[in-house]
Amino acid sequence: MTTAAPPTEEAASTLDAEELRAWLQLAHARGLRPLALRTLLGAFGGPREVMSESFASLAEAAGVSAAEAVLAPPSDIEGVPFDHYIEEVLAWAPEPGNHILTLADAAYPQALLTMPDPPALLYAKGRLDLLQTRAVAIVGSRHATPQGLEDARRFARVLSDAGLVVVSGLALGIDASAHRGALEGATGTISVIGTGADLVYPAAHHTLAHEIAREGAILSEWPLGTPARSAHFPQRNRLIAGLSSGVLIVEAAMRSGSLITARLANEMGRDVFAVPGSIHAPLSQGCHRLIKQGAKLVEAPEEVLEEFGFSPAQTAAAAAKRAKSKPVSASWASARLPEPAGTGDAERVLSALGHAPATLEILATRTELEGAALQGALLGLELSGRVAALPGGRFTAVERL
What we know:
By secondary structure, the protein is of the alpha/beta class. The protein folds into three domains: 17-126, no CATH class; 128-324, Rossmann fold; 339-397, Winged helix-like DNA-binding domain superfamily/Winged helix DNA-binding domain (Arc Repressor Mutant, subunit A). Helix content is 44%, strand content 12%. It is built from 17 helices and twelve strands. Strands 1-2-6-5-4-3-7-8-9 form a nine-stranded mixed β-sheet, sandwiched between helices. The protein has a three-stranded antiparallel β-sheet with strand order 10-12-11. Helix 1 (17-27) packs across helix 6 (82-92), helix 7 (146-161) packs across helix 13 and helix 13 packs antiparallel against helix 14 (312-324). The longest helix is centred in the middle third of the chain and has 16 residues, at 146-161. It is elongated, with a radius of gyration of 24 Å. The chain starts with 16 loop residues before the first helix and ends with a strand. The model is unreliable at 1-10 and 326-343 (pLDDT under 50). Residues 100-308 form the Smf/DprA SLOG domain. Belongs to the DprA/Smf family. Residues 335-393 form the DprA winged helix domain. This is DNA processing protein DprA.
């Protein structure tokens, strides 16, 4: 990937042990809401000043429950005694690429400060300069179709080439394709994760996560060592929305977590975009619902750029760059859906078709079948009435009653 600027790794301020202890104690104080913490910091200054105030002063500034939370003894963090956890963080932070960011840090993402409840403390890995760059989120189904994966990667690459950072959540499916496409572009990607910054989830994305940590940025509000928990992912989605000027949903079922991200983005005043699909495709239903509710229908990445105020010349340049690139990356095999065991060539072709028409070249890339095998499978499917040929050398699956 060609980066827009040299990686910035030394922009974060260095916290001494006592200051880090105060930030961690406030960030993990049970019952202390982010808004109350910001109120206290505004009233008294830094975290050590807050910790040294009397109960009466704290209660007057932010309420009795906030005062009780601040002055309560620190509890264990992820089962680790508080003092031991401080030692773990102090050992983790100096490693290359690792950063602790607080609300008082100049490197803290400015976009998050427009949220009502920005985290007091963030763990980051990688390029801090990306955290201040205008961003667009691309999210969608974990069980994406081949067409959805291609669309996510293509949109991400073009938007990255135009100068936007692509934000996503490192999940299987659309998220992973968005990260890969953005890494192929000129700007890069931010992965907001629902685990500790020292863990990779899902494990299948070990290589991708390390590539993002090296060439992009990984961000987490969860303590080191925090495993994946279902309750954490809606929280993660709020940070994805908060970091971005707009959120693009590529594929989503009616009960998709991506719709939570879209709702949160809308509540924060961010733009919401959705890619339409077949009325027969379950993973298009969530996108169509968003469009009915006011999301902007987009069919090309240039339409997102126009909504973001890019000039016609900038969008034309992005389109030209896209036209010169290969239709499908040579490393597609790493992003496509796993092939079910025991399926024949015909089933591979049907799976690759999904709900949208595709050309012979696209099918060859998705299925990795040689020409003769692909042609034979298509012929058999046509004769059995499961596939129909369309004008322009395209093929489509036939819905069966």
